[in-house]
Fold this protein.
Amino acid sequence: MSLKSRLKMENTGMLAASAFYAVVGISFFIALPMTNFPPHIGLMGVLSLINSYGLLKNRVWTLWVIIVLFFIATTFSVYMLYIAYGKNVFLDLSVIAYFILTWIFTGYTTANRQVLKR
């Protein structure tokens, strides 16, 4: 039995978006103690995990969380690239990947918002 059928998700794209936000949320919580507990990292981690749950359960309120997280993530990514560009290649690539994937999954979710119910 596949994971998609166990989770009762008809849309593979929403499952991918949910997985992305879950991985990002867990990654932010792992990075939290390494960065001396800045509140914006914790907030982004919490919002990402809430977003992942909402997408997994096809909740309509998830769209609002995605929009809020989109603006926070875009601002964070641009700021991180401005401050730390060229100092650490791994950090640069991961921030660029986060920026691009956030835009992709926000666009995908807003384009397919009719899937979200309740």
